[in-house]
Amino acid sequence: MTKPAVPSAAACLAALALAGCATTGARAPSPADPWEGFNRSIYGFNDRVDRYVTKPVAEGYRAVLPEPLRNCISNVFGNVGDLWSATNSLLQGKPADTAHTLTRFTINTIFGFGGCADVASTLPGLQKRPEDFGQTLGVWGVGSGPYLVLPFFGPSSGRDAVGFVADRFGEPIAYINDDLLYWSLSATRLISIRAELLDTTKLLDNASFDTYAFTRDAYLQRRRSMIYDGNPPNSAPSYDDDEDDGATPVKR
């Protein structure tokens, strides 16, 4: 269900694969992943769920719905999600980013027919700036904690798992009282996200390298970059409890 965790991470993996960042051969155990055995089992479970359920449904979704309608659905969910991004920008002490995201929301809601069209992204300086509560915790000095693979939802960490729960309560969709409507919208969003990634994830389908380790490393690198707004410190991240990424508040 989470667009910052699963889809964005998968897109990042594809970008890294295209850049040739994957390596083959044996890998040393990662200090960021003390629960690797457990995580690998959940990773395998998620892969089977995706292979036999989520991916076929997403393929049918893309085959039946025309691209303009798929884009509209994706944009509407993204527009609603901007409200939570703006909230997290404010919690991170970034009023300029809060105003930026609220401006995007207003433009897309009014001129994009409720967000069906992402008009704001066509304007100079109004590209999307996604934020979530895991990033907010990181900005204020909460360390990543151990890498964690969540059933159904994929890559995460101790910090991001807490953020994931907060995100579920923070999103506007969480306050829909009609259970049928809530689950229908949640399922539609999940399928929409997966359909967008069908071409991207083909890069990993027949990979000869360790896709688990590749996914983990790409996820952790990306989350670190997001906490620092794309400008992380030059030093390599440490995974010690007192020196983890986010262990000190990010200076603005």
What is the helix content? Answer: 55-70%
Total number of strands: 2
Mean pLDDT: 86
Whole-angstrom Rg: 18 Å
User: Which strand-content bin applies to the residues?
Assistant: under 5%
Low-confidence stretches: 1-25, 239-243
| Main sheet characteristics | 2 strands, antiparallel
How far the N terminus sits from the C terminus, by CA atoms, comes to: 31 Å
Query: What is the chain-wise order of helices and strands?
Result: HHHHHEEHHHH
- What's the total helix number? 9
User: Which word captures the global form?
Assistant: globular
Offer a few descriptive terms.
globular, two-stranded antiparallel sheet, 252 residues, disordered N terminus, mainly alpha, 2 strands, single chain
Describe the secondary-structure layout:
Layout: H1 6-18, H2 36-64, H3 67-91, H4 95-111, H5 133-139, E1 147-150, E2 154-157, H6 158-170, H7 179-196, H8 198-205, H9 211-227
Antiparallel strand pairs: 1-2
Describe what you observe in this structure:
With 252 residues, this protein is mainly α. It has a domain at 6-20 and 31-72 and 131-227. Helix content is 58%, strand content 3%. It has nine helices and two strands, in the order αααααββαααα. It has a two-stranded antiparallel sheet with strand order 1-2. The two termini are 31 Å apart.
Give the structure's gist in a few sentences:
The chain has a domain at 6-20 and 31-72 and 131-227.
